[in-house]
Amino acid sequence: MKDSIFQMVYELVKQIPPGKVSTYGQIAFLLGNPRLSRVVGYALHGNRDPEVPCHRVVNRKGELASAFLVNGVQEQRLLLEIEGVPFTGEGTVDLSSCLWEGPA
DNA sequence: AAAGTGACGCATT
DNA sequence: TAATGCGCCACTT
């Protein structure tokens, strides 16, 4: 396994429990560098592994990503709603209630 | 081999 | 309060 940021991002995102969401910045912070938020997004951008619930990762405002899977943000929002994640708007998640702060 | 680009976030003007 | 710039890593041209 490489020590690349990408690998760590994937491993971390895999640990996000259902019904919860996390942000790029939060993940970057857990990796040890809050400024890696951009890299985190890039990592998930190229991700195709179903093991990595990239739909549970949103930006700092709680807004869904712009270029999700084939169905776009609609699919992402649906997945989150099914898991019980509350929405404050059409494309906005209630981070105050469902933000995953990291592995115990 | 070097420069540009990209699912972001925070500080500053 | 809103808008712009900078920082970080990996990948593409």
TrEMBL record:
Record keywords: DNA damage, DNA repair, Methyltransferase, Transferase
GO molecular function, one term: methylated-DNA-[protein]-cysteine S-methyltransferase activity
GO biological processes: DNA repair; methylation
Family annotation (InterPro entries): ATL_DNA_repair, MethylDNA_cys_MeTrfase_AS, MethylDNA_cys_MeTrfase_DNA-bd, MethylDNA_cys_MeTrfase_DNAb, WH-like_DNA-bd_sf
Record keyword Methyltransferase present: yes
Catalysis performed (reactions): a 6-O-methyl-2'-deoxyguanosine in DNA + L-cysteinyl-[protein] = S-methyl-L-cysteinyl-[protein] + a 2'-deoxyguanosine in DNA; a 4-O-methyl-thymidine in DNA + L-cysteinyl-[protein] = a thymidine in DNA + S-methyl-L-cysteinyl-[protein]
SUPFAM superfamilies with a match to the protein in the record: Methylated DNA-protein cysteine methyltransferase, C-terminal domain (SSF46767)
Residue span, Methylated-DNA-[protein]-cysteine S-methyltransferase DNA binding domain: 6-85
Pfam families (alphabetical): DNA_binding_1
Keyword check for Coiled coil: no
Name of the molecule in the record: MGMT family protein
Native organism: Bianquea renquensis
